[in-house]
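Subject: design request, 330 residues
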């Protein structure tokens, strides 16, 4: 086994591994990975993808890459071929990657959500070097069988299709909804208005989570006049494979939570997806978010897989002690 800088790997040598990864995404997550795989290859050809690859002989059997963003590193992907799973290859891959990141000057935080790289050895390794771990579930809803969505409880709340004019308000809603929430510990984009804007741009304007589907994305608006309307809920949806959609975001302002609004929004999405011939919808949820887990299960979502999210924050630097000057004697 050998671990090399990803920029030393030839594109054609990585391609078979990406094809194997695409098969895992289709089988386990109902997700078409081909567009992401093509993007990875383009960055590889430009020698712009930072990370590591694991080789057995001349065969690339695993890889991982990361991106840097304002003092934070995001592990964009990590995958080891199923034939080489079991602990050693995953741990060696992550050891090289994480040692590089933790030694990077000025790095304050590392975030990782490993949808296809789980196991006891990986979890133990992350925790042994100071990472906090959170269990997450990837859920699936069969659209033809879906039903039983709650009726409107609050008649003052209107459900309307996504409108880009609400973009700033949508970022504000995310910030308010996730204040003190477990997901804000997993992703610090939920903690600031600027971070929420970047999150929305990634799922709406960039292909970060499939292709954004405006007709199946809705806003919950309260108020009886346009001038007094206020955003109180939101659900955003993307297409991730043939006849499968992914709910990329669902949030409700705190004072409206527990009143059926989340279920109403999901019902709106399912209605549109059914009309368009979709067979399924997926979403991910943190296990500790028990209210959301119970809601999704009650609506018919079933788990496809469980995966870990890891977070590391650099230790705070001790303050330098500066002795005060002694007052001059009078």
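Subject: RE: design request

Done. Sequence follows.
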């Amino acid at each position: 086994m050998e671990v090399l800088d990803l920029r030393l790997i030839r594109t054609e040598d990585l391609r078979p591994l990406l094809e194997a990864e695409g098969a895992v995404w289709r089988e386990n997550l109902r997700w078409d990975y081909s567009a992401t795989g093509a993007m990875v290859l383009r960055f590889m050809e430009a020698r712009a993808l930072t990370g590591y690859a694991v080789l057995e002989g001349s065969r690339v059997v695993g890889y991982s890459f990361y991106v840097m963003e304002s003092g934070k590193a995001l592990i964009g992907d990590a995958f080891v071929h199923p034939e080489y799973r079991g602990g050693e290859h995953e741990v060696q891959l992550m050891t090289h990657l994480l040692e590089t990141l933790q030694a990077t000057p000025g790095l304050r935080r590392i975030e990782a959500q490993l949808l296809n790289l789980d196991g006891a050895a990986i979890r133990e390794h992350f925790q042994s070097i100071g990472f906090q771990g959170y269990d997450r579930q990837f859920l699936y809803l069969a659209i033809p069988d879906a039903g039983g969505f709650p009726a409107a409880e609050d008649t003052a709340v209107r459900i309307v299709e996504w409108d880009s004019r609400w973009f700033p308000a949508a970022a504000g809603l995310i910030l308010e909804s996730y204040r003190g929430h477990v997901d804000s510990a997993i992703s610090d984009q939920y903690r600031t208005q600027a971070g929420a804007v970047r999150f929305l741009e990634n799922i709406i304007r960039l292909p970060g989570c499939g292709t954004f589907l405006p007709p199946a994305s809705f806003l919950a608006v309260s108020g009886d006049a346009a001038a007094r309307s206020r955003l109180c809920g939101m659900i955003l949806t993307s297409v991730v494979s043939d006849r499968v959609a992914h709910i990329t975001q669902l949030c409700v302002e705190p004072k409206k939570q527990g009143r059926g609004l989340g279920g109403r929004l999901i019902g709106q999405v399912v209605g549109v997806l059914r009309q368009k011939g979709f067979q399924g919808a997926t979403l991910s949820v943190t296990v500790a978010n028990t209210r959301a887990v119970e809601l999704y299960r009650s609506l018919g979502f079933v788990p496809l897989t469980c995966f870990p999210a890891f977070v590391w924050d650099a230790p705070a630097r001790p303050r330098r002690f500066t002795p005060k000057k002694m007052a001059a004697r009078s």
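The longest helix spans residues 11-29.
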